[in-house]
Amino acid sequence: MSTTTLSTVSQHAPLRLVVAGSVDDGKSTLVGRLLHDSKSILADQYDAVESASRSRGATEFDLALLTDGLRAEREQGITIDVAYRYFKTDRRSFILADTPGHVQYTRNTVTGASTADAAVVLVDVRNGASAQTRRHSALLSLLRVRHVVFAVNKMDAVDWSQDRFEQLQAELHEIARGVGLGDVVAVPVSALTGEGVVRAAPDWYLGRPLLALLEELDTELEDTAEPFRMPVQLVIRPRTAQYPDYRGLAGRVASGRVQVGDVVHASPSGTASTVIAIDTPTGPAEVAVAGQSVTIRLAEELDIARGEVLTTDDPIAVTRVLDAVVTWMGDAPSAARQRVLVKAGTKTVRAMLGPVTDIWDVSELRWTPSSAPLQLNDIGRCTVQLAEDVAIDEYRRLRGTGAFVVVDPATGATLAACMSGADLGALVP
Amino acid sequence: MTIEAAPPLATDVAALRDLESEAIEIIREVVAEFDRPAMLFSGGKDSAIVLHLARKALWPAPLPITLLHVDTGHNLPEVIEFRDRVVAEAGVNLVVARVEEWIADGRLQERPDGTRNPLQTVPLLDTIAEHRFDALLGGARRDEDRARAKERIFSIRDAFGGWDPRRQRPELWHIYNGRHAAGEHTRVFPISNWTELDVWRYIEAEDVPLPSIYFAHERPVFERDGMLLTPGPWGGPRAAETLSTRSVRYRTVGDGSCTGAVESEASTVAQVIEEVTVSRLTERGATRADDRLSEAAMEDRKREGYF
């Protein structure tokens, strides 16, 4: 594959989008609207929802029934779990994570946001910013989602009042500043009628409708200026008659780029060698960039196994103690000295939780000192001791190699989503 | 009818390569982390894609994965022929669980309506247990059904093969957690994020071979519940149903009793892409009777352990 083709790949990656917001702010309706107006709803789905809407006594087509996929969700009219949706416009394809708004499902919001390039946070113009708006904004900031758009919904219910919108817009900018989000945009919409979503909003709004805005956002994969990182997944060694000496390090490039001739370092082992070949799904290539699954061959046969991270000139930290921001997802609270497993990239090691030092106060939007165990959906800070060296970045600098999860060694359950690094940026008061 | 297919836009190809890399990453995680991985292989297009991706993920090493097919005994002969040809060419191990064996020894009862689709679950779970498979790769996609849209890429199944949508693990970044207790297993869906059109565009870009039934051909069919069924051991045509020869193709591969053909003139991949692009019906809505049984048909079957 030529380098020209590779750059084309990264420039047009699908936008991974998370839609968040409080219960009843109209998330499912907005998602239904995006699917419907981008003509991603086919006739049989439409018919099924129409008849379901009627059988529930609804007088109008209930867009939310398109997306609430579980029996319990349709019965209760709420979203319980993340659902993924796909739609395309002429300009871009979208992978959309539709996440629940209830406080008890924050872990699902984190699930949707962890891979998202962009987030749409729904706010009901009649109620203004809620505790969930703050909570979701803080989570999106912590998770370093590149772009955050506030969709100010139900504008039709306030007669598209410019004053109300501008008042709320100011409040949302204030929240964004408080949680350390960079540039954010607010768009007035009515998910119910579709104005401001795909179609243009009223005259007084000079920005573009929501979908047009989303079509132009860049993705993480497009950022080739980041340092090169590739966690090694597998060592491919066929030992077949045809490939007796083939030995390749297989993995997906987490960030940056690497090319034949580069010297790569493996961490934590600390070895180094020169790239002599890169095999991609479409054949040999000179260059590999973020997002690509490749197999890298080196000049020397080094002892590099799964769990190592390949880098070029910008080194990755190697450590046995992690400072972390932890979003707790276990049903039982965390405990100091709790024995756990840490999975960072492709490396899994035994680990022990240190005491909690701070907790994120969602209503005050700041960290407060606390040593209380973390409860389900709490966001806290603690240290984690590791039984072996792990190569890891600061999450705020590199998302792909700065995250880790905490796993219960007995059940395999995922207990926490963690971001490495003590520097929390604007989240520190 | 002549159909001129538009060449894929740059965005389409780029999006495909991103999905391809994601799928390869997922397959490599399975090979690295599990002791006895298997791959569900029905001979359908999604299976064909997953096998194609798995071979790329491990290239140039041979595939360390067993293929598993639950054969209802109601498959079209072209599909079985394709399955065996692909398996021979890929040089992989194939395990076939035959529903008829379970019926023959009384572990399963034939249903009055003749369909064996729901009967697949028990042979599937028995075979997983017998071979102690700890991970099963499958070609299910989230765009197929709204219950599927809720499923994680790594999906833990309990000792009964059941899926509990309320107890799913969060799936964070690209860190996949497939650890499970003894007796449980993990189902893994590398092409979760692909749509039907992505699959067809990838088949075109990579020249992936498929069973002939995916392309327009003349076939005697009869109509039942708005679907075109082929006569076979599953019954039909019944008294009021008449047989007629039409130009059809299949959009999915499944049990002959509930998988219908659609009228079509599309005989090449490019023509199929054109047809899928303008179709106003979803893949399963058009041709799968099993998903029409109730509003939550897929969810209910998945809770019982169906793939």
TrEMBL record, chain A:
One Gene Ontology molecular-function label: ATP binding
EC number(s) stated in the UniProt entry for this protein: 2.7.7.4
Database matches in CDD domains: CysN_ATPS (cd04166), CysN_NodQ_II (cd03695), CysN_NoDQ_III (cd04095)
Keywords: ATP-binding, GTP-binding, Nucleotide-binding, Nucleotidyltransferase, Transferase
Family annotation (InterPro entries): CysN_GTP-bd (IPR041757), CysN_II (IPR044138), CysN_NoDQ_III (IPR044139), G_TR_CS (IPR031157), GTP-eEF1A_C (IPR054696), P-loop_NTPase (IPR027417), SO4_adenylTrfase_lsu (IPR011779), T_Tr_GTP-bd_dom (IPR000795)
Pfam families in alphabetical order: GTP-eEF1A_C (PF22594), GTP_EFTU (PF00009)
Keyword Oxidoreductase: no
Domain of life of the source: Bacteria
Keyword match Transferase: yes
Domain Tr-type G: 12-222
GO biological process, one term: sulfur compound metabolic process
Membrane-spanning parts: none
Protein name per Swiss-Prot or TrEMBL: sulfate adenylyltransferase
Automatic annotation (TrEMBL), chain B:
UniProt keyword ATP-binding, yes or no: yes
SUPFAM superfamilies named among the record's database cross-references: Adenine nucleotide alpha hydrolases-like
GO process terms (BP): sulfate assimilation
InterPro entries: PAPS_reduct_dom, Rossmann-like_a/b/a_fold, SO4_adenylTrfase_ssu, Sulfate_adenylyltrnsfr_sub2
Coiled coil feature spans: none
The EC number(s) this enzyme carries: 2.7.7.4
Domain Phosphoadenosine phosphosulphate reductase stretches: 37-260
Keyword annotations from UniProtKB, A to Z: ATP-binding, Nucleotide-binding, Nucleotidyltransferase, Transferase
GO molecular function, one term: sulfate adenylyltransferase (ATP) activity
Similarity remark: Belongs to the PAPS reductase family. CysD subfamily.
Designated name of the protein: Sulfate adenylyltransferase subunit 2
Organism: Allobranchiibius huperziae
